[in-house]
Amino acid sequence: MTETTLTISELTERVREIFERSGLTPLHAGALARVIVAGERDACKSHGIYRIEGCLRTVKAGKVSPDAEPDVATDDTAIVRVDAKGGFSVAAFEMGVPALAERTQKLGMAAMVINDCTHFSALWPEIEMLTERNLVGMAMCPSYASVAPTGGTEALFGTNPFAFGWPRPGNDPYVFDFATSVAARGEIELHRRAGDQLPEGWAVDADGNPTTDPQAALDGAMLPFGGHKGSAISAMIELMAGVMIGDLTSPESLAKLGMTTLSPSHGELILAFDPARFAAGRAGDPMARAETLFDAITGQGARLPSQRRFAARKKAQADGVTLNADEMAMLERLKAEGLNAV
To answer: Is 153 in contact with 243 (CB distance < 8 Å)?
Structure first.
């Protein structure tokens, strides 16, 4: 199969142009292009250019505002509030993170609440915007109901991702980002498209029976990772990033959306910490002490999370991003037809 290699900037420009031609403002087109290309660059195909069509379908269905202007509000508290005004979350986050960093550096810790947004992307690009500022970050959000609680048989939770990042000056940050379901919904969809069966224990069908059929899983429910532990963490995210911030839980998001083929609407909670402020007055440099821990992990032959992603990034920065003929054809079709292509 013929392959095409593009530089990161070339691919970003192509994706940005697709979104602008489909009616998104430069604010949203640019933010979406950056996060989607970041997924492709880091070999995270489930959050790469495959996501473009879902974004366009959501715009076409009128479930997200393509020209929303997020509003960032601060006061004398530790909470930064961003009203996404029904737009995609990525631009809202990018607009709010400078205020979040300022509040964190002043107070030692702060939170950013994003309300009324449509979210589809991985959380690690957001976390890395905090670690780049030498801040520790945590982020979480619900989704739409697609995961059964442990012991249950029907979708109730979302995939409910959770991410954490620790800055490592002069090195790649320590970052993990995972769905609280066994796998991200995008992974199920990629298995379906490839005609591959799922591993056992990933999902149940519409009758609550275990299944390895991707379509049956999409029609039924995924399962939490780690049994009751993942189920409890998923419930925590519903409470903190849904109920606590006055936004939609995953069942409410699904009811609003009406289907699982579009990007979900809900809120997002981001927490930021300044480790220097937390360790003030105590012996030892927290950055150096963290490196001792990381060395102990890798010294046993273990891998730090995101190491493969960072390796893929370095390769893409040097050699570009390679797409197959089908992927290039998809980009050309979406550029030419815009919303008519979905």
So the answer is: no
Taking 50 as the pLDDT cut, the residues of the chain under it are none
Which pLDDT does position 185 carry in this prediction?
78
User: Per the residue annotation, which of 22, 28, 40, 47 is the catalytic one?
Assistant: 47
Q: What is the dihedral of CA 49, 50, 54, 60, to 10 degrees?
A: 60
Q: What is the CATH number of domain 67-181+224-305?
A: 3.30.1370.60
**Torsions phi, psi of 284, nearest 5?**
95, 150
DSSP-assigned beta bridge partners for residue 321: 6
Catalytic residue among 46, 69, 132, 291: 46
Q: Is 46 a catalytic residue?
A: yes
Q: Which residue has the tokens 């990042």?
A: 165
Instruction: List the catalytic residue out of 94, 126, 128, 187.
Output: 187
Q: What is the pTM of this model?
A: 0.93
> Does 187 participate in catalysis according to the annotation?
yes
SS3 60: helix
Contact (Cβ atoms closer than 8 angstroms) between residue 55 and residue 87: no
What tokens appear for 271 in the block? Answer: 């927490």
- Domains of the chain, residue spans: 1-60+306-342, 67-181+224-305
